[in-house]
Structure formats: structure tokens, C-alpha cells
């Protein structure tokens, strides 16, 4: 384990706000050219310790064309959520990622990755942080403007169950974006 990983594993910066306790779940290496920045682990991922080990992960793999072997290959794929620990339940879903986490850790983690990489900004929290010029737009508009974020990044909706309804309302996502997303992902992880 690298010193940075050891430091993250022992982080207790916002422990007092985490009802299930600290368990940072993050994957990265200095060769991972695909970076996926999601929201925060859910309860199932908190239990298993495996990122995207849930229905949202299945949908994200379907969108990207990644299989589990590729997604969990840290030499090719970095999985760095906006909050590394499960933030606990709120009414109607999980709490948002802890706001301390990304400002505290992301610069150091991203500095270890190759400079030439593709970043998937999955969900509103990642997009608000990394696409400040688009922060005020609704999520659907940010995704619709995905070409403006190329070549470095692609904004995606969070692949929670609600995204199935969203996809029906926005068929251009499956028609225009997913084929190009799969193509770019397959090239970057080669
Ligand atoms: S959520 Fe992030 S900042 Fe908070 S304890 Fe976990 S790793 Fe540390």
C-alpha cells in the first residue's frame, strides 16, 4: 500500500458525521487513464468495500462497456468518489457526499494519475465541483453539452434507478452519447 493510500485508509476527518463509521473506498494507480468520479459509496458498497458493487454500478458498466475485470483493474481505472465514505441515509435516499472529502483528498489523488486521461463526471456533485462554468445548469443540460467537456471529461447522470426514467425522457443520451462513451472508454483503457 502506498503512503497516500495508507493515509486515506486512516482518515477520520469527518468521522463525527458518518453514522456508519469511516470506510474510505477508493481505487487508483499511477497508470489508470480512465478516472470515474462518482458520488459516495452506498450502504451495500460500505458493507462490501467494493466500489460500484450495486445496481448503479451495473448500470454504469452497461453505459461504459466496462466489465468488472476492467473496472476493478486499478492499473487501468481509477474510482474516486466525491466522498470516500458512506455518508448515511437521508429521507428519500442517501445523504450527499461529505463536503470535506474532495477538497481534502482529490488534488493529491489526481496528481498521482497520468496527465492524459479521460474523466467521467458521474452525477451532480462531481459536475458541480469539476465543471464550475456549468454549475448553474440543470444536470440534463450539462449532459447534453457533453461535447464541450471533451477531450478531458464527459458528464453523465448518476446511474441510480431514477436514471432509467430519465433515459426514457432523454433518448438522445442512449443514441448519441453512449456509443461515443463506449468508444472513448475502450480506447483509453487499452
Ligand atoms: S468521507 Fe473522506 S474526509 Fe470524511 S472520513 Fe471518509 S475519507 Fe475522510
TrEMBL record:
Residues 25-182 form the Uracil-DNA glycosylase-like domain. Signal peptide: none annotated. Gene3D superfamilies: Uracil-DNA glycosylase-like domain. It comes from the Bacteria. Pfam families: UDG. InterPro entries: HI_0220.2, Uracil-DNA_glycosylase-like, Uracil-DNA_glycosylase-like_sf. This is Uracil-DNA glycosylase-like domain-containing protein.
Amino acid at each position: 500500500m502506498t503512503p497516500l493510500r495508507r493515509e486515506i485508509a486512516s482518515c477520520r476527518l469527518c468521522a463525527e458525521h458518518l453514522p456508519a463509521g469511516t470506510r474510505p473506498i477508493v481505487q487508483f494507480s499511477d497508470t489508470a487513464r480512465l478516472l470515474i468520479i462518482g458520488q459516495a459509496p452506498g450502504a451495500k458498497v460500505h458493507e462490501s468495500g467494493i466500489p460500484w458493487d450495486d445496481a448503479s454500478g451495473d448500470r454504469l458498466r452497461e453505459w461504459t462497456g466496462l466489465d468488472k475485470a476492467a473496472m476493478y483493474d486499478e492499473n487501468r481505472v481509477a474510482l474516486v468518489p466525491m466522498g470516500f465514505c458512506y455518508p448515511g441515509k437521508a429521507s428519500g435516499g442517501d445523504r450527499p457526499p461529505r463536503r470535506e472529502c474532495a477538497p481534502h483528498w482529490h488534488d493529491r489523488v489526481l496528481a498521482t494519475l497520468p496527465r492524459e486521461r479521460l474523466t467521467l463526471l458521474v452525477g451532480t456533485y462531481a459536475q458541480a465541483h469539476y465543471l464550475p462554468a456549468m454549475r448553474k445548469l440543470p444536470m440534463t443540460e450539462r449532459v447534453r453539452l457533453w461535447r464541450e467537456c471533451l477531450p478531458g471529461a464527459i458528464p453523465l447522470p448518476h446511474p441510480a434507478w431514477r436514471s432509467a426514467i430519465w433515459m426514457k425522457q432523454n433518448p438522445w443520451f442512449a443514441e448519441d452519447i453512449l456509443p461515443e462513451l463506449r468508444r472513448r472508454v475502450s480506447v483509453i483503457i487499452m
